[in-house]
């Protein structure tokens, strides 16, 4: 009889435990669904509520279809205005052109102001010109109006190790310049024509967007960089300041209330597909007690991987980049 009572007690305890965990599982599921629904509702409300959209342009600029699609979504959203937060040395000419065109289409629908937080050089300055107004910090870097095409030549190195690379081409300028042979005058002239053609486009863009006299245009398009303070006098920027300055301009010139919150729109950043490599390098070195070296190596790896993805004509300023 006592055995039956013990079994009954054990079964009741088991039922209570099972009931507890079932209720707990249902509660977790309800909370998860509620959180997902709230997040979806929150995202929808962010898209529909009036706000100032912030687009962050950093790192090396290249073709980025995801960013263009994000810009198109902003154009259709309930954003009252757009702030471009720029800190970039530039990138490829085609990537900068793609970004500029997308920003000009956006500026036709939304008041757009660029804020140079640290650097808007070369291709990044092209992006800044996609806005209606350019604000720069006093000591920010702007300019670097120019185009460059660089390629390695290992001819002498191959000679020293006794290696010859041979090819059969349909015409002399096919696949030129070739890093395995001296660059011919004809090949150099062909590449130079590409550089000058893109440079003429860049220079014309500066002339059109910044309304410069011939003398000022000549002064700012020789490839050098300027501080924001110098750029103000040269008409490369419109005002010195920061994002608060940009909000004041939007309120003063475009009637966008300063009380509106600012929302940062984002998409997948350049180089994310290699993030595991730089992060892995950092964690290994930190595990060995070399945290400082880990951070440096991580930054070097990220920069090298980004630059490795650039090809062709570059609108880029970075003295230590190797480009």
Describe this structure in words.
- The chain has 323 residues and is an alpha/beta fold.
- It has one domain (48-316): Alpha-Beta Complex (2-enoyl-CoA Hydratase, Chain A, domain 1), CATH 3.90.226.
- Helices cover 52% and strands 17% of the residues.
- The protein has 11 helices and 9 strands.
- Strands 1, 2, 3, 4, 5, 6, 7, 8 and 9 form a 9-stranded mixed beta sheet that branches.
Write a concise keyword list for the protein shown above.
alpha/beta, 323 residues, 2-enoyl-CoA Hydratase, Chain A, domain 1, flat, 9-stranded mixed sheet
Reconstruct the topology from this structure.
Elements: H1 2-48, E1 51-61, H2 65-76, E2 79-92, H3 93-107, E3 112-121, H4 123-128, E4 133-136, E5 141-143, H5 155-161, H6 185-210, H7 214-220, E6 225-227, H8 228-233, E7 239-240, H9 243-254, E8 262-265, H10 275-287, H11 291-308, E9 314-316
Parallel strand pairs: 1-2, 1-8, 2-3, 3-4, 3-5, 4-7
Antiparallel strand pairs: 2-9, 5-6
Quick synopsis:
The protein has 323 residues and is α/β, with parallel strands linked by helices. The chain has helices spanning 2-48, 65-76, 93-107, 123-128, 155-161, 185-210, 214-220, 228-233, 243-254, 275-287, 291-308, and strands at 51-61, 79-92, 112-121, 133-136, 141-143, 225-227, 239-240, 262-265, 314-316. It has one domain: 2-enoyl-CoA Hydratase, Chain A, domain 1, CATH 3.90.226.10.
């Amino acid at each position: 009889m006592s055995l039956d009572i013990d079994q009954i007690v054990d079964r009741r305890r088991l039922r209570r435990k099972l009931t507890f965990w079932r209720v707990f599982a249902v509660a977790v599921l309800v909370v998860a669904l509620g959180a997902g629904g709230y997040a979806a509702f929150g995202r929808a409300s962010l898209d529909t509520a009036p706000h100032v959209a912030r687009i962050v342009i950093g790192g090396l600029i290249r073709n980025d279809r995801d960013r263009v699609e994000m810009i198109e979504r902003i154009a259709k959203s309930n954003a009252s205005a757009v702030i471009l937060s720029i800190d970039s040395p530039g990138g490829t000419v085609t990537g900068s052109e793609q970004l500029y065109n997308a920003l000009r289409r956006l500026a036709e629908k939304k008041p757009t102001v660029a804020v140079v937080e640290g650097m808007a050089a070369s291709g990044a300055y092209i992006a800044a010109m996609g806005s209606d107004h350019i604000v720069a910090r006093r000591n920010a870097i702007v300019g670097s109006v120019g185009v460059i095409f660089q390629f390695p030549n290992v001819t002498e190195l191959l000679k020293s190790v006794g290696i010859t690379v041979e090819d059969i081409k349909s015409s002399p300028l096919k696949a030129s310049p070739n890093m395995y042979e001296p660059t011919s005058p004809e090949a150099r002239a062909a590449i130079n024509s590409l550089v000058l053609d893109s440079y003429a486009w860049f220079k014309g863009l500066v002339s059109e967007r910044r309304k410069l006299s011939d003398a000022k245009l000549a002064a700012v398009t020789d490839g050098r960089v300027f501080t924001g303070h110098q750029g103000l006098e040269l008409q490369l920027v419109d005002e010195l300041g920061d994002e608060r300055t940009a909000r004041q301009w939007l309120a003063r010139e475009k009637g966008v209330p300063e009380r509106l919150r600012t929302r940062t729109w984002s998409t997948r950043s350049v180089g994310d597909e290699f993030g595991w490599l730089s992060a892995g390098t950092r964690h290994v070195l930190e595990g060995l007690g070399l945290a400082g070296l880990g951070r440096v190596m991580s930054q070097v790896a990220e920069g090298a991987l980004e630059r490795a993805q650039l090809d062709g004509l570059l609108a880029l300023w970075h003295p230590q980049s190797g480009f």
